[in-house]
Amino acid sequence: MSDDRPAPVLRAEGLVKTHHGEGAPAHAVRGVDLCVRHGEFVAITGPSGAGKSTLLHLLGGLQRPDAGSIWLDGESTDTYSEARWAVERRKRIGIVFQFFNLVSSLSVADNVELPALLAGTPPKQARAERERLLAELGLTGKERSMPGELSGGEQQRVALARALVNHPPLLLADEPAGSLDSKGTREVMRLLSRFHQRGQTILLVTHDARLASAADRVISFFDGRIADDATLDGGTPPRRAGISGVLELKD
Ligand SMILES: Nc1ncnc2c1ncn2[C@@H]1O[C@H](COP(=O)(O)OP(=O)(O)OP(=O)(O)O)[C@@H](O)[C@H]1O
Ligand SMILES: [Mg+2]
């Protein structure tokens, strides 16, 4: 059968991650198969503690799985070192977190330009890219501000600019509106939708089902597994969720 769907930008098979902290081990991710294709806007939603952030950390190489594999653009990451993952995050994966994670001692301009400079972009071009993105995100005039001088919504827009400055094929967002009020939340969602309309592939993690409805595919995550994987109107059809993930939900 021919497959004319866009190529996968990210693929994962059999991902497992258990956290060993103070208490009992937390089985955060218990066997996840996932395929995200170019241009998709996928939301992963589910209750607190379901393992959503852990899954996103695995997919961005911020944590290592105990088992399973991840492919970026069809290339296996099994042998990637920490340093190699850091390079790939600069080039291929932009990440936005709930609490922005901006460098508090750097200006807005420097926060956005830094990943571009680290990726080897000539300073002039990094500056032009920063100016373009900050204008697009409504932050012109804030270049010299420090992150602490901005509102939460503004800080999150800076974080979005920073994540997108190197034109990553994939944007991973973990509760990017989680610490914002409803106006800030709407703003972030509107921006994500706009970038998606221009072709940006997005994987959004949120516990908020309403936010998830902005995506064209919604994955319900429950107890470390994919419980449901649904394409909303107009989206690219995903591969079916692993049937085992559904059947094993109750154990
Ligand atoms: N670094 C860690 N050390 C120990 N346990 C952890 C660690 N990170 C997560 N966990 C545990 O793993 C499970 C899944 O956590 P995770 O943060 O992935 O959930 P989540 O779905 O993102 O929740 P939330 O919606 O509250 O952000 C939880 O039981 C959590 O306590
Ligand atoms: Mg989380």
UniProtKB/TrEMBL annotation:
Keyword line: ATP-binding, Nucleotide-binding, Transport
Entry keyword annotation includes Cell inner membrane: no
Protein family (similarity comment): Belongs to the ABC transporter superfamily.
Highest taxon listed in the record's lineage: Bacteria
A Pfam family the protein falls into: ABC_tran
Domain ABC transporter: 10-248
Organism: Streptomyces lomondensis
Protein name: ABC transporter ATP-binding protein
PROSITE patterns: ABC_TRANSPORTER_1, ABC_TRANSPORTER_2
A single MF term (Gene Ontology): ATP binding
